Structures are given as C-alpha cells and as structure tokens.
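Example (one chain per record):
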Amino acid sequence: MLEELGKDLQKIGLAGLGAAAILAEKGGELAKECLKRGEGMAERGRVVSEELKRSAEQAAEERRRRCVQENVSILSREEREQLRRRLDELDAEETAAGQTEETETPDDTGAAED
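Predicted structure:
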C-alpha cells in the first residue's frame, strides 16, 4: 500500500513537471503571438490615426472656405472693393518678398571676422 502511494506520488510529481513544461512552451508561443498581434494593432492604429487627421484637416479647410465665402457674400460693394485693394497689396508684398529672397545670396566665404 505504501509502495503504491509512493508510485502515485511519483506519477503526480511527474505529471506536474510535464504540465509545467507544457505551460512554459505554450506560454512562450502565446507571448510571441501576443507580440505579433500587438504590433499589427499598433500599425493599424497609426493608419487609422493618419486617416482621421487627414479627414479632420480637410473638414477644417472646408469650414474655413465656407466661412470666408459667407463673410464675403455679405459685404457691401464698397467693402468688397476695399478687400480687393487689400488683397492686391498683400499680393504685391508677397511678390516683393519672393524677389528679395531670390536676389539675396548667402555668405559663402566661410571666413571668420576678426
């Protein structure tokens, strides 16, 4: 009877060791699979985030355009003429600034001043 109990305890111990080995093996596989799936989800999250950002930027631009159109449409003839003059001034300033940038040359000498 004690001999049978010893064999049973030995079997239980070996079964425990086997279970631990299986758990370690499957746990490693599970960890790899979780990592793989997590990386995939992170990439999908980045893609969705970029799409949402692009969509929000487009919606904001459309709202700005509509707002400008609405505001311009309620201007009087005189106010629209003032706006045209101001836009012409801004265009001229922008053109002048672009020409100034083109004519300026960086100091290529590299010489240090004493």
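Caption: The helical segments are 2-73, 77-103.
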